[in-house]
């Protein structure tokens, strides 16, 4: 194994609580409606821009997006990414494994999280929802990342916390790893379909990778 491609939110970044807060604040401000976490997860697929465009009237789009980014950025100073995630990335990076991100979030919000939590140095490629025509579960983003890294399916795995991640990885011909090692993930119950491997502990996953 030479290459690991990760989903971002809920996988290597504990950003889902921040995303929920930013969307909830935006919808409350511009729609005067309260959205639950489950309702927000149901909107996932498009980038943040697409979600807000789908939910809000056109005249509110620019102000709502500015509000979303402001709240989302501020939340990073209040919440830190778990230390065990950074330890995992440090260990994997030190072995020479190349790592990349394939995420449905937009480029701006991905860059905010990578910068605010100091994660950008670990990943050789970051493919966001802005750079693909077809979001996960379509494998386009995975194919793009592999092409940029010069990786082959036989030496690459895809790691994520949602059914869409497993489906995208399978469609790209990769072995898939489903994870629910963070307190807040997109999963509610078992994966469907089941990934090739399943981990609930960051250290167990790291040990598994380093033994291969």
What do these coordinates show?
By secondary structure, this protein is an alpha/beta fold. The protein contains nine helices and six strands. The chain has helices spanning 16-31, 37-41, 48-55, 61-78, 83-94, 107-116, 140-149, 163-171, 202-211; strands at residues 3-6, 98-102, 125-127, 156-160, 175-179, 197-199. Helix 6 links the parallel strand 2 (98-102) and strand 3 (125-127). Helix 1 (16-31) packs antiparallel against helix 4 (61-78) and helix 5 (83-94) runs parallel beside helix 9 (202-211). The chain is globular and about 50 Å long. 38% of the residues are buried. The model has no long low-confidence stretch (mean pLDDT 96).
What does the secondary structure layout of this molecule look like, with pairings?
Elements: E1 3-6, H1 16-31, H2 37-41, H3 48-55, H4 61-78, H5 83-94, E2 98-102, H6 107-116, E3 125-127, H7 140-149, E4 156-160, H8 163-171, E5 175-179, E6 197-199, H9 202-211
Parallel strand pairs: 1-2, 1-4, 2-3, 4-5, 5-6
Helix pairs in contact: 1-4, 4-6, 5-9
